[in-house]
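// run 5 | inverse folding | seed 20
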């Protein structure tokens, strides 16, 4: 996501006084860095700096956060030391900022929750810390308004509330009206949405924070959020898996109360926490809830149920954040036409879904893989056909077709792309403008360019469902397929083309953006270029350089080898995965090894060499493709039909196709032409049973 681009400011200075050592994270308005405070060149202490960009936040809000943070003093609020005015500076741009200098935290509650469901004793300590901090804030007439796990930091062994960017000072009547819809949607109370629905102001009060605390308690104890969408919040349909142990059952009921005046206060939560924790979950009938307005339709266990609280596990179960967010997005646009648009921008923890995307090295609209290897005229007189024809198993019917990958193949019918299975049945109907092959269970696709969608890209699974929503676009920027679990993505910050990184299948950056150019992973390595003047090298899947930058041009690894060109103009050779040159530079045009053979051009004709560089199939073809499943497509004459040869050079399928793709999963796409009409079908590999 774009916030990760703050990482480029690492190893720079802020206000000539703070050395920004490590980027830790970012939100809507700025970023947090670990920094060294300097006097001259001498480090005097380590601090954290929150850089708040002036162009991202109104000046009065910046002043509000700085003033609030500096003035507050409590053991469970993050300690803010001072504030500075300066700028984040990079070689190509500068951003004026205010810097909030804070004590260093070792992590967030959000990070902690990603490892496990917490036990009742641990949750008690965390809630005590949060409630204590809230009690202090509320006594100072301040409502935080964005309480969530990401804003609760661990400092040594203490938990502290942070981020007062949208905290609001309340008036003397225990509430201030606001029409500003700010906060994180899944932790915001129903009165906020009700007010926005009516285009009215909402009262800012401590009850806002107490609702958020109730949501967090459920999340900590169960690993899930207590609702499935905005409709559940508005209708107060709170859903909690299993029973909560006392006193958390009473605390949650009191916090997730529809009436703002009857919600528990922070002091009341602290009082309830003084009650010893009952390690066994209680039933609803065994306790008296102190709040007059109980939660409606909350799906808590009825009397007689004795399900214990979920024990802490090594791995946290999947939290239904994604479903919740998609529901919120849809319902906001339906219920709150204008205000809903603003809140979508607040959903910062799903910003990583909003990427610009394109294929780094190939056009995704091509159904056939165009091989870079071209060959000379085939000497058919020297080839002995094994099979005169290979029967069509899927009749010609497609305008374009690609090789099968993971059981599906992309096809084009009319102006749209979809996917078929190996019987020729449409599994995903044609509906996309551009598509990639499936890899790792996902395919990069572009939805139709309409006024609403504006040609967005996203990733679908093999049922056609969105896994990463089409919320990013711009084909001028780079994105690729998920090969070996990672996909290259070039991210954009404020409209500028910046750098490539690699995302995993959740859309998170596994390798932070730092490369000028980057390609797909292959055999554990990916070629990258660090900057405009640098040469290509190879990184491993941790992002570390495995083969130093030294090549003017480089190819992807295949069969353990990759083509490289040390300078331009120059010939190509091949290196192994250690970077050792194993085939000396001798080729003017190259491709990739496949099944131990490489198509190469010699004096205008194409033949094949093995991995020692020895010629094993004499140059005789006008065009030649890579081997796959024991066969390679070849063309005999300029403009002539394509057939297939085996690895001895013998013709297995006679030339008869106007285009021919590579075999994969036993099938190959071929184009049949009668001189007037052309269409694609699939043939079976005769070497396969």
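// decoded
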């Amino acid at each position: 996501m774009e916030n990760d681009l703050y990482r480029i400011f690492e190893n720079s200075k802020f206000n000539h006084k703070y050395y920004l050592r490590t980027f830790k994270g970012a939100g809507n308005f700025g970023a947090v860095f670990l920094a060294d405070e300097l006097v001259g060149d001498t480090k005097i202490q380590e601090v954290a700096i929150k850089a708040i960009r002036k162009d991202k936040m109104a000046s009065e809000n910046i002043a509000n956060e700085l003033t609030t943070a500096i003035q507050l003093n409590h053991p469970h609020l993050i300690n803010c030391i001072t504030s500075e005015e300066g700028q984040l500076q990079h070689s190509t741009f500068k951003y004026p900022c205010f810097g909030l200098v804070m004590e260093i935290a070792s992590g967030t509650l959000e990070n902690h929750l990603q490892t496990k469901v917490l036990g009742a004793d641990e949750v008690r300590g965390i809630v005590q810390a949060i409630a204590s901090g809230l009690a202090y804030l509320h006594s100072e007439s301040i409502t935080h308004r964005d309480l969530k796990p990401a804003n609760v930091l661990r400092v040594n062994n203490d938990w502290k509330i942070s981020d007062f960017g949208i905290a609001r000072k309340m008036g003397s009547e225990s509430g201030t009206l606001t029409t500003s819809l700010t906060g994180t949607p899944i932790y915001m109370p129903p009165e906020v949405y009700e007010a926005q629905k009516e285009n009215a102001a909402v009262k800012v009060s401590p009850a806002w924070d107490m609702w958020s605390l109730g949501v967090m308690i459920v999340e900590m104890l169960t690993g899930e959020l207590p609702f499935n969408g905005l409709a559940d919040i508005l209708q107060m349909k709170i859903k909690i898996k299993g029973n909560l142990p006392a006193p958390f059952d009473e605390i949650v009921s009191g916090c997730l109360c529809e009436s703002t005046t009857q919600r528990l206060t922070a002091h009341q939560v602290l009082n309830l926490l003084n009650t010893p924790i009952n390690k066994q979950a209680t039933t609803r009938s065994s306790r008296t809830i102190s709040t007059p307005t109980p939660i409606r339709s909350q799906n808590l266990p009825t009397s007689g149920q004795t399900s214990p609280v979920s024990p802490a596990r090594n791995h946290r179960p999947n939290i239904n954040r994604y479903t919740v967010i998609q529901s919120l997005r849809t319902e906001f646009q339906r219920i709150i036409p204008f205000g809903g648009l603003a809140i979508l921008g607040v959903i910062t923890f799903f910003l990583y879904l909003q990427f610009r995307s394109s294929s780094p090295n190939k056009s995704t609209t091509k159904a056939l893989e165009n091989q870079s290897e071209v060959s000379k005229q085939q000497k058919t007189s020297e080839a002995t056909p094994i099979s005169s024809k290979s029967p069509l198993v899927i009749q010609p019917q497609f305008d374009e077709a690609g090789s099968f990958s993971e059981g599906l193949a992309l096809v084009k019918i009319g102006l749209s792309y979809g996917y078929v299975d190996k019987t020729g049945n449409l599994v995903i109907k044609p509906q996309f403008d551009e598509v990639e092959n499936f890899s790792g269970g996902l395919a990069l696709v572009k939805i139709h360019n309409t006024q609403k969608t504006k040609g967005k890209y996203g990733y679908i699974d093999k049922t056609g469902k969105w896994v990463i929503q089409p919320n990013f676009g711009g084909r001028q920027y780079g994105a690729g397929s998920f090969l070996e679990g990672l996909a290259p993505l070039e991210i954009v910050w404020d409209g500028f083309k910046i750098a490539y990184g690699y995302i995993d299948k959740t859309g998170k950056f596994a390798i932070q953006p730092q490369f000028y150019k980057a390609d797909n992973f292959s055999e554990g390595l990916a070629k990258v270029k660090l900057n405009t003047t640098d040469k290509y090298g190879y990184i491993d899947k941790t992002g570390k350089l495995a083969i130093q930058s030294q090549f003017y041009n480089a190819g992807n690894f295949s069969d353990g080898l990759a083509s490289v060109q040390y300078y331009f103009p120059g010939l190509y050779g091949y290196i192994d995965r250690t970077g050792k040159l194993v085939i000396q530079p001798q080729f003017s045009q190259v491709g990739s090894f496949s099944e131990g053979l490489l198509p190469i051009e010699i004096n205008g004709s194409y033949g094949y060499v093995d991995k020692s560089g020895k010629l094993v199939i004499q140059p005789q073809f006008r065009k030649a493709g890579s081997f796959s499943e024991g066969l390679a497509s070849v063309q005999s004459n300029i403009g002539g039909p394509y057939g297939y040869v085996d690895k001895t050079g013998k013709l297995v399928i006679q030339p008869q196709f106007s285009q021919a793709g590579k075999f994969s999963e036993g099938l190959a796409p071929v184009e049949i032409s009668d001189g007037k009409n052309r269409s694609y079908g699939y043939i079976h590999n005769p070497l396969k049973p």
